[in-house]
Amino acid sequence: MTRLRTRTWVLNGVLVVLLGGAAFGIYQAFSPSADTAQAQTRTTPVRRATVTETVSAAGTVASGYTGAANFTSAGKVTAIDVKVGDVVSAGQKLATIDSTQAAKQLQVAKANLTVAEDNLDTSGTSSTSGQTGAQAQDTTASLQAKVDQAQLDVDNAQAALDATVLTAPGAGTVTAVNGSVGQQSSSGSSGGSGSSSSTQSSTSSGSGAQSGSGQQQSSSSSGSSGFIEITDMNSLLVNTSIAEIDVSKVKAGQQSTVTLNALPDKPIQASVSKVDLTPTTSGSVVSYGAQLTLTNPPSGLRPGQSASVVVTVAEADNVLSVPAAAVQTTGTTSTVTVQQNGNTVPRQVEIGVRGEATVEIKSGLSEGDSVVMTAASPSATSGTSGQRSGGLGGFGGGQGGFTGAQQGGLGGGRGRG
């Protein structure tokens, strides 16, 4: 009996120990760690540097001039004198349509003009017996009107004959030939335009035409606007759209950097040439078109290539600066935390150019002052591993401050230390 009691007490004691250990484990698992609640701090001195504010956007390479050449009269295409890639000058012959009928109409019009002129000349020398002075004047006026009409017919016939020859509306490179010899070309219009930040068509496209093989085809391909299209490949620019929040900062003449997606390691210098005054709205997004002129475009650059654009909207050289993450702004008031005599105290400052990584300090701080930055500590596990791998995990390196805190989307500033 005594042995049974002893075994019972032993078992109860073991159960108490196990339950106590489980309760302690649950408490440790769910109670906040001291390291988690504790914030990490770091100081950095106020330094002199160059602070740059930029606006970023996406862009597309375009030509400063595009022209679309269309026949102004209908007819069968008899010759095409250029091909894609040819460089042409303004007024150069591009293609022709059948001129047989137009030539005959001009011949007839000229013959009618000759007859009308002869009749007028004859009336001036013939006898006017039996006619009063007024009647003679009426006769002369009637014959002169016939001469004038005949001359107008000649001019129209000549214009129709000239229209059988298609010429270049401007200088550039042939980028599309939307037709073939033997097809029936419809009448259209020819013209050119400068590139715009919005999509536009410089001329109306031709209608359907009968090809030499008997199949119906369009005289202009999808998205094209001319029988023959010409693009100035030597006058390239970049079209972009500026977000409404940034458009007041962007002005003509500001320096920019264009990076082609196809050549990410070769940035191109550019400058803002114009900013649209009226917006473009897509859904709830409002933006303003802008154009950039390339300073020294590389060879092989082509319209339609996509690029990223960075416009420098403000810059301050050799000024006092602190990491952007150290500045707290509420309304129009900006403050920083300064380490002074072993204590941390807030101090109001006046800021200037606000970059992505650094901010210009106009007043409130002196060079060498220690600015305190605070970052929330990660969890106990991740914080421990972060400290093992390189110190405070909540801060970025160097003057850049918090590496992730100021990395915005389009329109963010950029600091340069």
Automatic annotation (TrEMBL):
Start and end residues of each CzcB-like barrel-sandwich hybrid domain: 74-184
Keywords recorded for this protein, A-Z: Coiled coil, Membrane, Transmembrane, Transmembrane helix
Residues passing through the membrane, by range: 9-30
InterPro entries for the chain: Beta-barrel_YknX, BSH_CzcB-like, CzcB_C, UPF0194_transport
Residues in CzcB-like C-terminal circularly permuted SH3-like domain copies: 321-374
Location, primary (coarse class): other
Annotated localization: Cell envelope
Sequence ranges of Gly residues compositional bias: 388-417
Any one GO CC term of the record: cell envelope
Coiled coil: none
Keyword Transmembrane helix belongs to the record: yes
Bias (Low complexity): 122-137, 179-188, 195-226, 376-387
Region (Disordered): 120-140, 177-226, 376-417
Name by which UniProt lists this protein: HlyD family efflux transporter periplasmic adaptor subunit
Organism: Amycolatopsis panacis
